[in-house]
Amino acid sequence: MIFSRHLFCEIKDLLYLWRMIFYFSGTGNSAWAARRLHQCTGEELVDMAGALQSGADSLHYTLEPGERLGFCFPIHGWQPPALVRRFVRGMHLDGADGAMTYAVVTCGDNIGEAMAIFSRELRRRGLELHSALSLVMPESYVALPFMYTDTIEREREKCRQASADLERFLPLLLDGRRGEWRLVKGKCAWLLSYVIGGFFNRFMITDKKFRADASRCIGCGQCVKACPVGNMSLADGQPQWHHDGSCTTCLACYHHCPRHAIDYGRVTRRRGQYYFGKNN
Ligand SMILES: Cc1cc2nc3c(=O)[nH]c(=O)nc-3n(C[C@H](O)[C@H](O)[C@H](O)COP(=O)(O)O)c2cc1C
Prior knowledge:
- It is a single chain.
- By secondary structure, the protein is of the alpha/beta class.
- The protein has nine helices and twelve strands.
- Helix content is 36%, strand content 19%.
- The two termini are 25 Å apart.
- Residues 1-5 and 7-17 have low confidence and may be disordered.
């Protein structure tokens, strides 16, 4: 069974070599899902954060007739991250008419109406979202009083379940099936996305609250390397945030610090750290 699925993926690999998966990831969950999609479909991986940093020319893509287009990203405040929406608004696609479009999103608990919001973003660009999946994965947001990383057992269980869900989705995707597969919207999805999420994304996405504790920071630069949007550098051996509006508050800098020297206000001082692969 496993053998035949892999063989199936490899044959598809040859057929779909030039299709694209646009992805964004802070702590690695969505990057893991995007890599698995890439392995199975052969679709080229395009880092949306990198493309936006490289400027307008990098947002120009040409599709062959009937090509498929994939998006893979985390949910931030029950909405697609602003960076993803900026990418969709800025991208130039030639030959996208009728392209089959899909989205795989990752979240810690639930996504609210994020997929409906994303679908509308695509529609404004003349694209229709054909199929969508959400994967519940380890929690990365710890910057509010009631938010914590998962226990290691829960992390492993979430990753195991997400992997099983993704494997079930892949044949449906490859067969071109339309639909929403296991969209975990949560209770009061509308309220989560449009009211609480609206407030969160408007007022709580900022790098102004990041600080590095000079007594613990060893200037290793892991935080700079981990930042997916290039919003950090080292000055006098200490991390600096650029305050240029590019931060998505993905907390990759906080989670990757080997000395737990980075905090986001006081609230993260005794919180756990997580990135994909840290504990498994
Ligand atoms: C700023 C921010 C906001 C988040 N908002 C939500 C949310 O609304 N719902 C949820 O279930 N998880 C939320 N999370 C958790 C992430 O969506 C989840 O951990 C995701 O898998 C992280 O993906 P990544 O590792 O690719 O960055 C949030 C994480 C961050 C950093």
